[in-house]
Design a protein that fits this description.
With about 240 residues, the protein is α/β, with parallel strands linked by helices. Helix content is about 20%, strand content about 30%. The strands form two sheets. A six-stranded mixed sheet has the order 1-2-3-4-5-6, with no helix packed on it. It has a six-stranded mixed sheet with strand order 7-8-9-10-11-12, with no helix packed on it. Helix 3 packs parallel to helix 4. The longest helix has 16 residues.
């Protein structure tokens, strides 16, 4: 399995499946350079929700280059024909789209997908294939904001823990989880709860808003955490403050 970090919350996973298919998973892409994939590869393009730092219409350009593309989009992403035409997207892309609501199970080609309810917008994805399981949180996170009321933050905690607890019986190979610097000292509440209750072989923090020093802090705190810059595509120099 090859995993590449693109930018913000966007990752690409490439795998040669046991049935011989070349599979590519693309999560929450909106900006950055994607690798080139074999023309016969089966692409599964995920967008957890409609926020501009998780979804962009540019993902539909992939159908011009690859013949096997499936889009799995959080069902808050509404794409009617008039909207697509107005934005220069061929409406036939809708034939490639699966709309994913929360707590849904989807079988698509070579992969099995389960969704969780985000604590912000849209869904999180649990994707299984062969003997591997990948978790991409989207904006499912323990959002503890200093500007919230105590009651609001307690409700957020409850909602987040309820969703993550649904994963307790699963073995997660790779997890991608927000660690947002805007939360200040509460930036890793969600990641910490995930490691305590579920765990994963490897966790990549995301949603860092270019504050990659946070990733280095998390690497020191949690043995399973890796810095996404170590797998960035293409490899470029990034200053860590």
């Amino acid at each position: 399995m090859k995993i590449s970090y693109i930018y913000h919350s966007s990752f690409v996973i490439e795998e040669q499946l046991q049935n011989g298919h070349q599979m590519v998973l693309i999560f929450d892409y909106f900006e950055g350079t994607l690798p080139e994939f074999p023309p016969e590869a089966y692409l599964y393009v995920f967008a957890s929700h409609k926020h501009g730092d998780h979804f962009h219409l540019c993902i539909f350009d992939l159908v011009k280059q690859y013949r096997n593309v499936t889009y799995i989009l959080g069902n808050d992403i509404k794409l009617n024909e008039k909207y697509l035409v107005r934005n220069g997207v061929e409406p036939t892309v809708r034939e490639h789209i699966i709309s994913a609501k929360c707590h849904m199970t989807i079988e698509s080609g070579d992969i099995h997908i389960e969704t969780l309810r985000s604590t912000d917008q849209g869904v999180a994805f649990v994707v299984s294939f062969d003997d591997k399981t990948i978790y991409h949180a989207g904006d499912l996170n323990w959002w503890h904001w200093k500007g919230y009321t105590d009651a609001g933050n307690r409700l957020m905690e409850k909602r987040y823990c309820e969703e993550i607890d649904l994963l307790r019986e699963k073995h997660i190979d790779i997890a991608m989880i927000p660690a947002d610097p805007r939360l200040e000292e509460f930036y890793d509440l969600g990641l910490r709860y995930f490691t305590e209750q579920v765990g994963a072989d490897v966790i990549y923090p995301m949603h860092l808003w270019k504050h990659y020093e946070i990733a280095e802090q998390l690497v020191k705190k949690y043995p399973c955490v890796r810095n996404p810059l170590s797998i960035q595509y293409p490899q470029i120099s990034v200053k860590i403050q």
